[in-house]
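Methods, example record. To illustrate the input and output format used throughout this study, we show the complete record for LysR family transcriptional regulator. The sequence lines were provided to the predictor; the line carrying structure tokens was produced by it.
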Amino acid sequence: MTTFEAAARLGSFTRAAEELNVSQPTVSHHVQTLEAAIGAELFSRHHNRIALTRAGRALADAVALGLGHIEQAARQIALRPSGSGLVLACSMGFTHGWLLPRFSRLRLALSDYPIHLVTTDWHQGFDRETADIIVDWQSVGRASRTTIPLFPEIVFPVCSAGYLNEHPELATADAQPRALLGCTLLHFDERDSEFANWEKWFAAQGVVYGIPPNAYRFSNYDLILRAVADGEGLGLGWLHLIEERLAAGSLVRVGRTLCNEMTAYGLDVRHGTVPDDVLERAVAWFRSEAGAPGQEF
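The corresponding predicted structure is encoded as:
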């Protein structure tokens, strides 16, 4: 599975072999063995180029999720003792879309105080007894924590510029939301969550939509954005997580915006394990970067 994951992530048997320090035929043999065991073709081969099939992408998402959980568990086990650093927990989507482009500024704001970044695909995976700050979705106040809102849910459909050119009907999407029904819609496997999905977005536009059983689902939000940027279809974009991609032109907004003030990202803060002034600086930094109003800490 690790061999398959490397080939799927890198899009090349040769590059996967280099990363794993094995021969290219070994990688190819592992993939062929896996395909035979599963009974499905995982890659389409075109001369020296490979591309994931639908079955391959579904398995790649599952493997990435499984390896992510293993990495998450290992990181939590290896966390330094309390007081040796700030433990910051975020979802993978928030980490890639919002935090990492700003991470150097956070370190500067904390005067290089150690930060242990713990990531997971799902908010339910956070270890709330270990983290000092959790960037949570629809945070709920807890007796031992202070809940601090960052920004509300602002979401709209996005696609690549190439996909938009191939589907000129999307130019009318603001006035005709039904125009999206004829496109390939990519779905985030959101489990039990309050945040928006395609059903909720269409319902807000007065359009009835049911997710088909063969929907193109992803278990990792960053993978959806990559697929959208590659022209594979339409995805839902959360404004604060895709601002850089919009500015760079890899994603293009199409259709109406859904705003929900009742669902939001926020900070769950735990006192007592790091100095209060470190927590105060970290919270002030998040508020400033998010443009959130000040409040008592």
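Annotations derived from this record:
Residues 139-144 have pLDDT under 50 and may be disordered.
The chain has eleven helices and eleven strands.
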